[in-house]
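Q: Hi! Curious about what GlsB/YeaQ/YmgE family stress response membrane protein looks like structurally. Here's the sequence.
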Amino acid sequence: MGGILYTIIIGAVIGVLARFFKPGADPLGWILTILLGIAGAYIGSLLYAGGGVIGFAISIVCAIVLLFVYEMIRSRTAKRPVT
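A: Let's find out. The predicted structure is below.
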């Protein structure tokens, strides 16, 4: 139970910091922000297994990249013509 709560808290912190450092408005709710942070932390741990401050920073950078990918996908689906 503690592991799940820890994952949610770390995901929220990383997601909020990623949204803070990325310029522009981000149309995400708090659940998507937590999921973004969890995914960024997971990818960051795959890239750098050392942990610490460097691992935390890499996780934030990965979450920022995921945020750009999310916006790119969202803008493509929003511009699709209705037939």
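A: A fun detail: The chain has three helices and no strands.
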